[in-house]
């Protein structure tokens, strides 16, 4: 069997690719269906809201049935609505289409659970961040491949039709949907739930005991640290999801750019996942080695504060070059904060890491819904201001995180490790 760290990198990448395949096409869809800003943002909100419930559900199920079957389900299920993009006829159809495609975002829970099972806590920040960053990269790559490469190509295919652009956006999501469906099947065949094998076989041979999904969820949900990280992840991954949905349209509307040009620029935000999320997890591990959990928390605090400040700068940028440059730096801190968050998650409640990962992961989507509502109701500048100040407020809550056996910024003490007597 192929190691999960190999197979899930590609699978997670594909999940995000299919999840956001439609986003660079939004300007064309808006024009074809004659939709207003409010209707577009309702569909953007649906795209991330569909993932909230599924992440809450998948977390405890990871502890119970393992990540392999769940990953297969998510990829196969989300591929179907993605392939049906061309059937959309109005705002309501777009809303429900993106709601169901949003199930693909649930793959993140299995991704982080898998790597948490595979690596020691001392390096889990780096491991989770590298694999997570590779998946999130899919959201940036899809902006480039779908919006800048495939969409123009499909327009050429349909150049003899009445409306080549409309024919193109109605069919261009079929290839990524097919890839997602096939990847889901391959994951089931070639992967294991953990280094010891698959959960069903381990239970059958009594290598692993039964785990109650309800007990797992309740234990994670009753831990205050889980909800603090839920809020903070809302303010980093929630921001990334909002930018994935909004960036192409923002640049298309604010600057005189074509759909292809706006998609190419928007893809830069996601491309920072090549290193930024991994960098955040790595630095969290480095500081943990030096000063323990307190070091991880200081990293989290600094990343979130810088992220919030850069959002405010981005909102005030009126030049294309300035906006792109600030967006790149802003993106680095967004993804670094995501990496540092999941450097903390495996410590919160180790026996039920799946549930903690699911709840915190759902926070990212809740944040995206909240920020999306801001963009739907307000002008972009005001929405970005609310986003920036909210992120900085969430950074301050880091001082409240207190994990048993570890010293926090203000509270708690490190447990003394038993000394090994020399002979």
Structural features, described:
With 423 residues, the chain is mainly alpha-helical. The chain is 75% helix and 0% strand. Helix 6 runs antiparallel to helix 7 (124-157). It is globular, with a radius of gyration of 21 Å. The N and C termini lie far apart (43 Å). 57% of the residues are buried.
Main sheet attributes: strand count, strand direction, barrel closure: none
**Total E-strand runs:** 0
Unreliable sequence segments: 418-423
Mean pLDDT: 86
Radius of gyration: 21 Å
Shape: globular
Q: What separation lies between the terminal Cα atoms? A: 43 Å
How much of the sequence is in beta strands? under 5%
Number of helices: 19
Instruction: Kindly report the oligomeric state of this protein.
Output: single chain
Structural class, by secondary structure, is mainly alpha
**Percent of residues in helices:** over 70%
SSE order in H/E notation? Answer: HHHHHHHHHHHHHHHHHHH
How would you summarize what this structure contains?
This protein is an all-alpha fold and 423 residues long. It has helices at 4-19, 26-33, 37-65, 67-83, 91-101, 107-118, 124-157, 164-169, 174-190, 199-204, 213-221, 224-234, 237-254, 259-271, 276-291, 293-315, 320-348, 353-377, 380-396.
């Amino acid at each position: 069997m192929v190691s999960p760290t190999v197979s899930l990198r590609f699978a997670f990448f594909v999940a995000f690719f299919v999840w956001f395949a439609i986003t660079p096409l939004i300007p064309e869809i808006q024009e074809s269906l004659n939709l207003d800003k409010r209707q577009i943002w309702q569909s953007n909100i649906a795209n991330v809201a569909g993932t909230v419930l599924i992440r809450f559900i998948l977390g405890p199920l990871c502890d119970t049935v393992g990540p392999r079957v769940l990953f297969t389900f998510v990829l196969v299920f989300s591929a179907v609505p993605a392939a049906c993009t061309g059937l959309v006829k109005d705002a309501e159809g777009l809303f429900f289409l993106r709601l169901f495609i949003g199930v693909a975002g649930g793959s993140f829970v299995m991704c982080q659970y898998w790597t948490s099972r595979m690596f020691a806590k001392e390096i889990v920040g780096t491991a989770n961040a590298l694999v997570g960053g590779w998946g999130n990269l899919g959201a940036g790559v899809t902006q480039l491949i779908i919006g800048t490469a495939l969409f123009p190509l499909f327009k050429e295919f349909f150049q003899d039709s009445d409306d080549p652009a409309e024919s193109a956006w109605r069919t261009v999501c079929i290839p990524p949907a097919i890839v997602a469906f096939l990847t889901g099947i391959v994951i089931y065949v070639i992967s294991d739930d953990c280094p010891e094998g698959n959960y069903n076989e381990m239970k059958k041979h009594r290598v692993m005991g039964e785990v109650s999904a309800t007990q797992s969820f309740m234990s994670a949900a009753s831990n205050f640290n889980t909800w603090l990280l839920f809020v903070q992840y809302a303010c980093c991954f929630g921001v990334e999801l909002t930018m994935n949905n909004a960036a192409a349209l923002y640049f298309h509307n604010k600057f005189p750019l074509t759909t292809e040009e706006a998609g190419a620029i928007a893809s830069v935000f996601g491309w920072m996942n090549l290193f930024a999320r991994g960098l955040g997890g790595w630095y969290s591990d480095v500081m943990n080695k030096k000063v323990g959990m307190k070091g991880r928390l200081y990293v989290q605090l600094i990343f979130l504060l810088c992220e919030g400040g850069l959002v405010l700068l981005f909102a005030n940028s009126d030049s294309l070059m300035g906006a792109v440059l600030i967006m790149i730096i802003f993106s680095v801190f967004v993804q670094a904060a995501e990496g540092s968050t999941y450097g903390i998650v495996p410590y919160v409640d180790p026996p039920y890491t799946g549930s903690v990962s699911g709840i915190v992961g759902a926070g990212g989507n809740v944040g995206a819904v909240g920020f999306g509502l801001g963009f739907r109701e307000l002008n972009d500048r005001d929405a970005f201001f609310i986003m920036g100040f909210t992120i900085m407020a969430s950074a301050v809550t880091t001082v409240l995180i207190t994990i048993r056996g570890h010293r926090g910024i203000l509270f708690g003490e490190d447990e003394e490790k038993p000394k090994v007597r020399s002979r």
